[in-house]
């Protein structure tokens, strides 16, 4: 189904069209939320909240950006709101780093040839939730700088600079721990 | 891009099987709440409209009643009687002897109303 048709049908209240949107985008939304919140249950809550709010919020959607960009923006905002409202952003980062560092660094001698996903998680934890999600959308979901600029409402130059800094932070961390190149 | 971070080995999670059903249930519940609110709002509007109509009718009836009393007074009393009634007490003589029987009865009727 064409994106514009989906939008129009959802605006008219079609549950079927919302189901099509769910099938095509729910996994991406969930993974973005999971990358930001680092908690499966909370990510699932965000996913459901986003899709419950879609029929209402899509009434104001003018179709100027792609549907996935719009959904990612909703997701990023929802996750940031949750992180801020809980006031545990910093604590969560610290807590998770400690938790994963023990297990990942403890096993690094076993798997030195491959990139350890857990070590990468630790590296990513060194970034803020927003920057981490930005890096995820760029490198894992292959979004363009222009899309990211729309999602985060930042100039393209700022996005590029933040991505570059984020990659440096993560790679330096990996190199320090596994001679990652 | 060559300097991309390789996320391919990171876990990619899938939505739980019942998540979509939960979304549908929440949407249905939200629609029901909206319907109930709509009905409640409609009931309130209907009640407010009824109150306005009742108030209007009450005011209208009272106004008509007062208005009709004025008309009755002027209709029942003749000009001569009204003039005599208005002049009562202004002279030492109440001119009772000048009133005929009909006028006297009309006067008494007015007084008893």
Query: Low-confidence parts of chain B lasting 5 or more residues at pLDDT below 50?
Result: none
Number of strands of chain A: 0
Annotated CATH homologous superfamily of the largest domain in chain A: Winged helix-like DNA-binding domain superfamily/Winged helix DNA-binding domain
Largest sheet of chain B: none
Helix and strand composition category of chain B: mainly alpha
Instruction: State the order of secondary-structure elements of chain A, H for helix, E for strand.
Output: HHHHHHHHH
User: What shape does the CA trace of chain B take?
Assistant: rod-shaped
Question: Share of helix among residues of chain A?
Answer: over 70%
Share of β-strand residues of chain B: under 5%
- Gyration radius over CA of chain A: 18 Å
| Rg of chain B | 41 Å
Range of strand content of chain A: under 5%
Q: What is the average per-residue confidence, as pLDDT of chain A, rounded to a whole number?
A: 85
- As an assembly, this protein is heterodimer
Which shape of chain A, going by the Cα principal axes?
elongated
Terminal Cα span of chain A: 42 Å
Write down the secondary-structure element order of chain B.
Answer: HHH
Total strand count of chain B, please? 0
User: Between the first and last Cα atoms of chain B, what is the distance in angstroms?
Assistant: 105 Å
State the helical fraction of chain B: 55-70%
Overall mean confidence score, pLDDT of chain B: 79
What does this structure look like?
The complex is a heterodimer of chains A (181) and B (113). With 181 residues, chain A is mainly alpha-helical. Chain A has two domains: 1-87, Orthogonal Bundle (Rna Polymerase Sigma Factor, Chain: A); 90-181, Orthogonal Bundle (Arc Repressor Mutant, subunit A), CATH 1.10.10.10. Chain A is built from nine helices and no strands. Chain A has helices spanning 3-11, 15-37, 40-57, 67-86, 89-106, 117-125, 129-139, 145-152, 156-178. The longest helix of chain A has 23 residues, at 15-37. Chain A is elongated and about 55 Å long. Chain A starts with a helix and ends with a helix. Residues 106-113 of chain A have low confidence and may be disordered. Chain B is an all-alpha fold. Chain B folds into two domains: 19-63; 77-113, no CATH class. In chain B, 69% of the residues lie in helices and 0% in strands. Chain B contains three helices and no strands. Chain B starts with 18 loop residues before the first helix and ends with a helix. The model of chain B has no long low-confidence stretch (mean pLDDT 79). The chains are: A mainly alpha (181), B mainly alpha (113). Chain A binds chain B through residues 15, 18-19, 22, 26-27, 30-31, 34, 40, 43-44, 47-48, 51-52, 55, 114-115, 117, 120-121, 135-136, 138-140, 167, 170-171, and chain B through 1, 3-7, 9-16, 19-20, 22-24, 26-27, 30.
